[in-house]
Amino acid sequence: MSGPRAKIVGVEKLQRNLRKFGLNMDDEIKDSVKITAEEVKTAAIKSISRNSRGAKSGGRWTSAPGKPPNSDSGDLVRSMRTDLKGLSGFVGSDLLYSIFLEYGTVNMKARPFLRKSLRGRRSAWNKRLKEISKKAASKVGK
After folding, report:
1. pLDDT class for 9, splitting at 50, 70, 90?
2. By the number of CB atoms within 10 A of the CB, which of 19, 48, 85, 102 ranks highest?
3. Domain edges within the chain
């Protein structure tokens, strides 16, 4: 090959540091996912437990459309779970009617409790990710 040439030095070290950065990030993110999932679950339970006043139906007060559902039997609150898989966290209920409450039906407007709880924790999640990135980067530099 003729003409100008350049030699790149330190590629192996860069690759090692990038792998190390990724491993540090994974561990930290898993911890943050767990914390955030629990916070979303707690916020959802609190929103259900607040009891918003809507119309009276069958001797009970229903929640207003667009507001979290009222707790009647306590089954929805007791059914709330978190499930962690890799770098993902899931929060929800295995009760069939929970999806109808969250998204509504043809005959009932939604009473969202999960989506609002998730949105409420978004800024805390973003802050954690920034802190994790800085922490992982500082470990790689050592």
Report:
1. low
2. 48
3. 11-140
